[in-house]
Design a protein that fits this description.
The protein is built from six helices and 18 strands. By secondary structure, the chain is an alpha+beta fold.
Length: about 325
Amino acid sequence: MSRPTSGLDDKRGRDTPYLRFIRQALFDWAHIFSRIGGFFMRGNRQLEILSSDEIEKMRRAGRHAAELLSKLGDMVEPGITTEELDAEAVRWAEELGATHAPYQYTGGDGPEIPRSICTSVNEVVCHGIPDESDELQEGDIVAIDVTPVLDEFHGDTCATFSVGEPSDEIWELIEVTAHALRRGLKQIEAGKRIGDIGAAIQNYVETQDYSVVRDFIGHGIGRKFHAAPQVPHFGKYNTGMRMRPGMAFTVEPMVNVGDYHTRVLDDEWTAVTRDGQLSAQFEHTVIVTEDGVEVTTLVEGQDPFAESPAGVVTF
């Protein structure tokens, strides 16, 4: 589940030269602070460097998140409601002894999310709230975002599914978004910078004539649902904080058919494309290792560089 980009007015989706300057300055200062005295570690303790025991718990939470996502994806068909998908996620968690991070989440100062998963249909970019009246139709797409919590640790993953047989337009959007995630994952390596992830994603997506959402980004994760670092899906190479072994965060590009601007509806959660065109999303939770990246949100035997979350797209 994404977080709003700091410094942006996410409810109107504005992106002015001034805001772009502020956003880059924030990233640059975050990098400076991370190099002088471990600011994020000892100062506000937002950035977690996980121990081996904590990493094992992240693996377990991630594996179960991937299993839940695949299960819900198999249920997607014309006529099912997003409320039914949420109800199955609740039943699943009760059997496992897990909880769902989105349920009653406020983000600090907003209203509580009343459901356990997010279901974002068609032009909904993220944070769509399941509802009994929201019946999926042939030709729709739905991004299902799940974040189960087990032993206090989070597994956060998302995939976009077509409802029925997808049109060429829909399938191309889904494929581009899945490939964007894969390209971002390939940038994760100790010593490289967070900005490399977003640069790789943005460069690829824009060459395919799509746009990358700016207002919502990836985030640090572990015991906390949302923590440092911020992980934008746009930007420049060789900018931002350096990645270090033990860092855990999400990579979750949201890709629009039209431009990247969004707006938030009156429920204060559901974000939609401002121009009403389609949007898709894929997401993994990752851990930086000594020699690359470990993706935790996988079912057993799954290769994140061979297929997307939930196996929607194969590479």
